[in-house]
User: Fold this.
Amino acid sequence: MNTALLIDEVRLTPILIADPPLLNTQGVHQPYTPRLIVEVITRGGTTGVGETYGDGKYLELAEPLAQALVGRSVSDLNGLFTLAEEVCGDSRAADERVEAGGLRGVQTADKLRLSVVSGFEVACLDALGKSLGLPVHALLGGKVRDSVEYSAYLFYRWAAHPEGGEQDGWGAAVDPAGVVAQARRFAGEYGFSSFKLKGGVFEPDQEIAAIRALAEAFPGQPLRLDPNGAWSVETSLHVAEQLKDVLEYLEDPATGTDLMAAVAAGTDVPLATNMCVTTLAEVPEAFARGAVQVVLSDHHYWGGLHRTRELAGICRTFGVGLSMHSNTHLGISLAAMTHVAATVPNLDYACDSHYPWQTEDVITTRHVFKDGRLTVSDAPGLGVELDRERLAVLHRRWLADDGTMRERDDAAAMRKAEPEWVTPAIPRW
Ligand SMILES: O=C([O-])C(=O)C[C@H](O)[C@@H](O)C(=O)[O-]
Ligand SMILES: [Mg+2]
Assistant:
């Protein structure tokens, strides 16, 4: 056994990062959002870093796993999953319903645990890669491309949060002209050439108009619309009919396999999802019924980079497309996404990333998109370095918070502007 790979210490650092007032069907992002930074330190003196969701229900599961991991090897990645099953227990937050705050589909006990394990898996891979002098993509079998394409993630948004907070200079976007202006800036600054609009915010016809305006401004470029399951089958089919000539895919127009299958049966526009199929248990029925044509994997809730590759194999087997979903995240997760994306041959679409919306980070050198792409790092591990000063600042913000921001709650944030707001019932339109 290589004792240098044994884990001597695991550090968990919950942080709050600034988040702009991005609108979605359930409300608006809070001024700060929680993330959890995981560090594993080996006996050989190498530190590996990982990142995952930071709400209380994830922290609760991460703590016993961090303790149990000491003495294990960073190379024991399969054992990590068994260990998590043994020590984490089922989260009190687990249920089968679509998660209210994060728009990430069901939140079963398995999925919550996998979301936590993913942060540890990435940290172990980073430490293992650094110890062996190999990039993470090499530990996953090697890259099949040198750069990974990302798409612009457009949001309706306000210029500022109702209660103030950090302003990012992007201004408001609440109509087609605002959406096009935002897209032009994304294209100009980052070189993105495909565009996803987060919908489910305004009446569907207003969102159709925004996509039409994008199609006019960027003729022939791939466009996507994602209302996070806010529409009925009828509304979904109306939107699909109106936009069938310009949409690359429609993402989660309706909620659940039954409704998605009904929409898919009525249109040729491919349906993508990060809500209908987010666990292995949901795959057989959704694929058999043709409810989704593209799965947006997310290494956090699918359980890390190896599990993402397993999902890719399943999609390949069934002829279902694959891309990547993103929630608010920092540079560690973006590095992890890029490494795994580089190894998947059937990554058929540009990946989502919230990264351009994040003004804060915990790595020393931020990632830079060029021509809408990130170069795959060949440096050992993930190829990122933790900025300890920034980490400490963002952790102090988490410590100082009275609990309001430690749980993502888009409806609560919306109530600051509209006191009567409640999470809209679905279908909303
Ligand atoms: O593609 C998606 O559904 C998402 O990115 C979900 C996110 O929660 C998004 O809606 C957001 O950040 O408001
Ligand atoms: Mg989505």
